[in-house]
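From the shared-data thread, chain only:
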Amino acid sequence: MVQPSKPLDFSLADGGSLPIVHSKVADILARMAPQDVQLLAVKVESRPEPYFLVNVTRIEKCIDDEASEEVVYWTPKDGLPEKIGTYFSVSGMRIDPTKVGDARVFRTWGWHIALIVSEDLKQALESLGATGMKFVEVTGPSSRSDQERAREQKFREAWQQVDTAREAAWRTLGTLEQEVIIPVVVGGTWPSRRQAWRVIHRPGGHTLLVTDGLSDPFHGQAEPSTGLGLELALETSELLEDVEKSWPLLLLERVADEVAEHEQVRERVKAGLFSMEVSGSGMPKALVTEEGRVAVLLGMSSRTLPGHFTLPAGEVRLVTVKALLPRELAYLLEHGVQGRDELARRFVESGEGHLSQTRRHPGVR
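Structure, as tokens:
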């Protein structure tokens, strides 16, 4: 149930990127920072007073990489050429005030999420009693100690070693595409807070999609680690015209998120064959149950894929993901563990093994 609340003088729209302000805030911006912003009148439903959308036009290249707690840049390997050289993430941001000039409101170059205001503008807004705003100091020395800096540097080095070793493992499985598929919004419950997928082309026109990060060391952890100790692999013989918009990648994303978020799921996956269901939204009708779900079988052994590969901190299990047809799920639910094992046996016997396909005959009648 939606509960009415007190309107704010400052709020963010469009996923948190566009400020919407009350006219009294807009008046201060127009008076103190006319060269830094554009104010566009907007209508806020149920509010009679005027509001304005604030378009911040000033961008300053002023982030102090050394003073900030952590900065990570986009690289060619990330597969987004337009972002190369800009910031993938910034934690504990500090800016160099000597590079700001006379700006009173601006966004930081390469990291437009940040919205910075000058001290005098901050004081004017606080004197006004404007609601909805929270200010965080971004100048002065960082609170990060030398020990913390050293630990973070050690983590970055460990992550790079893992990334290099894992890529070498992927290259043994086929022709690895150089570009990495990453989500528009980064973060989540993956170990290093970095979600990624790789595309590998295999003999017979097959496409293998693998998660690339579940075996990352945990964020900020300097000790050697294999993260969650596994990566997922989904292989299909179907032609994928646009892998990033394909159903196999969508299915792999959903399964990976479940594995990353729920320890009990990971433990059952590591124990052997395991079946689960995820949302069928956007998936081929041939795979979707009447309840709008898609089932998968995880952990089938493969004649053409290794069960493990080695990283600097130890072995990582490569877990296959096979999409099930609704009739196969019904059989599995009816017969339990024995039905699951029988399905796996029939898949191997038929020659299709761990492959995920929509155009095939069910493994059961």
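Helices lie at 23-32, 119-128, 146-171, 247-261, 263-271, 326-350.
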